[in-house]
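Sequence only, no structure available. Ideas?
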Amino acid sequence: MRTSDFDYHLPLERIAQTPIEPRHNSRLLVMNRNQDTLTDAHFYEIGKFLNPGDLLVINQTRVIPARLFARKETGGRVELLLLKQVEPGVWEALVGGKGLRKGVRVCVENGPEVEIIGELEGSERLIRFLQPVENLLPQIGEMPLPPYIHEHLTNPERYQTVYAVETGSAAAPTAGLHFTPELMITLQETGINFARVTLHVGLDTFAPVTESDPQEHKIHTEWCEVTPETAALINKAKDDGKRVIAVGTTSVRTLESAASVSRINGRVAPYRGPTGLFILPGYPFKVVDAMVTNFHLPKSTLLMLVSAFAGRERMLDAYQKAIEREYRFYSFGDAMLIL
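Reply:
I predicted one. Tokens follow.
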């Protein structure tokens, strides 16, 4: 297995720059692994492919307005991208600018002063805000949109799921962006259930694998939680012979992490803590029966994960057909349902 095995060519015009309105009007490519079929649909039709009793597991994390702009004492502009809060006032962050060494202070535009207190890998730094900042972020921060999105996002809430409540992510769990409250109510009225997990998404999740052997890639840990209540819902669905459907790769990793600490095979245990689970082809899925997911970047850990679930050749063939059928790719793009 080589990283190059997960490469494909995507025409630039297939990268979605703006979200579809309303959310559930995005397209949906349905892959049935048993029947080896690909069906074109729209996301609001997802209920046609689900059964009463199926459990959709959604990630309720909320994205931090984590992109900040600051000035050095010399006047030079600095960009800070908050990645993870280590303790109150202290964050791991990506920094853009020259001479940003330990001990340097910068002042956030319309915000507090920041001191660099540690140098991590590459452009990552450990920074400390000299005044409380958490409540100020909605006013002074911008949404950390991926670098392939060049259009300005007029409504920041459009990069949040409609069910986002637990603040802590540096990027959105994008498979969930297609749900509307109306669609969720419709699905529940037909007997399809929802369960909530939390995984705070780090930007490393989306980073391309640069090593030629993907098994040498170091995946960064992310914090996740499966509450006892959610674990009970998942295990009941499994006991009843119903499908557990992960909405997004973040939900997949959370569920499989909770399954790895369970004493019962094929079930989950409550879990709260870090996960560094890296799912590659050959991984034996323990609880996930189906998944909703967007179209992922070439050579990414996310493409490797869905390839582990559906087969590499089958996934790359589906991606090629999606390109030919003019599906929209990446964060603001269309979705897949893999059954």
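DSSP finds six helices and 17 strands in the chain.
Hope that gets you unstuck.
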